[in-house]
TrEMBL record:
It comes from the Bacteria. Belongs to the peptidase M18 family. Transmembrane segments: none annotated. InterPro entries: Peptidase_M18, Peptidase_M18_dom2. Keywords: Aminopeptidase, Hydrolase, Metal-binding, Metalloprotease, Protease, Zinc. Its cofactor is Zn(2+). This is M18 family aminopeptidase. The keyword Transcription does not apply. One of its GO terms (molecular function) is aminopeptidase activity. Pfam families: Peptidase_M18.
Amino acid sequence: MSSAVYTQSGFNLGLLKFLQASPTPFHATRNLAECFLAAGFEQLNEADSWQLVPGKRYLVTRNDSSIIAFIYGRSDLLDSGIRMLGAHTDSPCLKVKPRAELNRRGYFQLGVEVYGGALLAPWYDRDLSMAGRVTYRDESGQMASALVDFKRPVAIVPSLAIHLDRDANNNRSINAQKDIVPLILQLPTEDSVLPDFRSLLHAELQASQPQLPVSQVLDYEISLYDTQPPALVGLEQDFIASARLDNLLSCYVGMQALLEADDQVSSLLICTDHEEVGSASCCGAKGPMLEQFLMRLLPETESRIRVIERSMMISADNAHGVHPNFMDKHDENHGPLLNRGPVIKVNANQRYATTSETSAFFRLLCETADVPVQAFVARTDMGCGSTIGPVVASEVGVKTIDVGCPTFAMHSIRELAGVQDAWNLYRAVVVYFCYAKPPMALLSSR
């Protein structure tokens, strides 16, 4: 089994850099792909014919926002199965509308949609930038796409002063249509003609990537994000504060662990888009991306079913840590603590895909890696979120467990995790990817 080559400090610094460089799912997927390519993975094109060879490493992307990285182990798949880990690349945010330009008393504002279940209040009074994918016509008339990131603060959503909203601290609601409209420019006069937002994107592409032959911006998928960089916080730097910890933390853990895996057994990482809005897309977990990959790897149906039966999926997505100011929001026996190890997530109504068998196997992994482990169950009188776990389990039929690092302020513009937890999850996943036997081999045959 390969041993970890990172220290916890180096691992976390790499995580901070990855978070900072990945303001959108498109950027996260590009950064993941670049790391795998640098490590010798071969990029596949879904439109081409594939000839996959045992002992080699591959990656494939879809929609520029989802990725599968795969080590094709030398061991027979019917003997070893596939060790899979899944995460998601998207996070709740504000997305710019197609006709976004608004002139309000001479202020140029952008119409936005709320993507996912975002906490809206933390978006006020933040130095915001914009990033995403732009599709354009080039100078030869062909269509192409490129990623853009303004990086600098270009937008803000100012709060209404307390003097004009005396109940702001007591019972304030936020109207997503009219209360969180970002401000990006003051016009010379109230009657000034608004700049076309596409022209602003064109100018930014020309300035940041002058080599691109952009003739006309046709359309875009642009999100706003907080420019405050990720940081280690606390008197003893016990915590990681950052946007998009849910769920780029798990993507980073999966990438680093897969880079540690050898080529004796088959291991797979899938990071998909659109989890925060239900995963129902061509590149989401409810779409066919993973199933189609497995069909191309194993075209014969019976063999594929047999391999899936000997495989396992770890669905890695952040868990709710027990908040010291709101402890009554947790079941008294299931309040995970930050820096106390990864969390096994359980739900009787299948909001999580964990079973007693997959949970037991993960506990053995953590024991082997000398990693503490915790459990989360939502209060019975409260609703429970979900993950890609139940989606993959039902779509592919693979045994699945839901785990994650405990987190505060999930779905806020800035979340909080413990410095030890991503590291400990990584250590457990390294053992998982290098485990010599099929994940379910410890179970007695029935």
